[in-house]
């Protein structure tokens, strides 16, 4: 009896995450997908549903022939959405690369710092999370605007003769994304570097390997799981980012998160905006699957 209860408890523990995903991911996704197959209407809600889950499975089967993918065809024919997807992927990719370039030295320094100092350094990395994300982005407006702190400081040093135009540009978006998502890059990198055996570096140097070569041949390959995890944690949310492009990028910024918001709240075209969201999710499935596969390989390598 005890063995049966133990096995039942183990299955329950495994089932809880899947139940969580079913309730908070799959169910909302099906609702959004259902709206994407509907037609817009001047009503509340502003769409005419093709079918209703409350009518049962039989009614759903009877209406399958009435389902229309016209909203998805509309996305493929309109260059606005295609350019928004490409621009979002490009901005997210460049921001991820910059975040990696900035975050790797920080994580490396934290992992090589004395053990007594590491908790303090770790707290400093997590410290921005104690402040509202929106407030932190708003603070960058005061820093980057023509009369902001950055331009005033550069003018005071004599580096520039007139204020730089940074706000409402792509540069401001990159700065905002890198600043906001830097902890998501540093933390997995630090976790990978901190548990690395330092004797491997000492062995490489004893065999005549220069410090830079030892880093590329030993440290960097062992930190690849942290690099992949950090890049995915930055790239995936950055693709659908809305707040940073809206506040720092200006009206000419074209990203899919901002386009999605405009379709929902300005145009009130819920079917098209739902189709935009579904396509965005399908695009992000690729890096998510890659991330899961890399994590599985890392776990197998540790065994």
Can you give a write-up of this model?
By secondary structure, this protein is mainly alpha-helical. It has helices at 2-36, 57-62, 70-77, 79-112, 118-126, 133-144, 149-157, 170-194, 199-206, 211-222, 224-239, 243-249, 256-266, 270-302; strands spanning 39-40, 47-48. The protein has a two-stranded antiparallel ribbon with strand order 1-2. Helix 4 packs across helix 8, helix 6 (133-144) runs parallel beside helix 12 and helix 8 runs antiparallel to helix 11 (224-239). The relative contact order is 0.12.
Topology (SSEs and partners):
Blueprint: H1 2-36, E1 39-40, E2 47-48, H2 57-62, H3 70-77, H4 79-112, H5 118-126, H6 133-144, H7 149-157, H8 170-194, H9 199-206, H10 211-222, H11 224-239, H12 243-249, H13 256-266, H14 270-302
Antiparallel strand pairs: 1-2
């Amino acid at each position: 009896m005890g063995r049966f209860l133990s096995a039942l408890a183990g299955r329950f523990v495994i089932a809880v995450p899947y139940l969580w995903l079913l309730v908070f991911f799959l169910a909302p996704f099906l609702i959004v997908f259902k709206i994407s197959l509907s037609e817009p209407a001047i009503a509340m809600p502003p769409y005419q549903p093709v079918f209703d889950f409350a009518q049962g499975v039989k009614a759903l089967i009877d209406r399958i022939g009435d389902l229309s993918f016209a909203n998805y065809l509309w996305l493929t024919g309109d260059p606005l959405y295609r350019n928004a997807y490409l621009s979002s992927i490009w901005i997210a990719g460049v921001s991820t690369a910059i975040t990696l370039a900035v975050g790797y030295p920080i994580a490396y320094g934290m992992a090589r710092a004395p053990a007594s100092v590491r908790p303090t350094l770790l707290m400093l990395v997590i410290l921005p999370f104690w402040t509202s994300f929106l407030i932190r982005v708003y603070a960058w407006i005061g820093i980057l605007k023509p009369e902001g702190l950055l331009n005033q400081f550069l003018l005071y040093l004599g580096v520039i003769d007139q204020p730089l135009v940074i706000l409402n540009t792509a540069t401001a978006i990159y700065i905002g994304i890198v600043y906001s998502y830097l902890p998501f890059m540093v933390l997995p990198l630090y976790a990978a570097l901190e548990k690395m055996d330092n004797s491997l570096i000492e062995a490489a140097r004893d065999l005549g390997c220069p410090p830079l070569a030892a880093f590329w041949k030993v440290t960097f390959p062992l930190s690849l799981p942290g690099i992949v995890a950090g890049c995915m944690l930055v790239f995936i949310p950055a693709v659908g980012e809305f707040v940073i492009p809206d506040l720092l990028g200006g009206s000419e910024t074209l990203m899919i998160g901002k386009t999605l918001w405009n379709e929902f709240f300005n145009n009130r075209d819920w079917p098209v905006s739902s189709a935009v969201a579904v396509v965005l999710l399908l695009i992000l499935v690729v890096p998510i699957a890659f991330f899961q596969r890399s994590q599985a390989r890392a776990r197998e390598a540790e065994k």
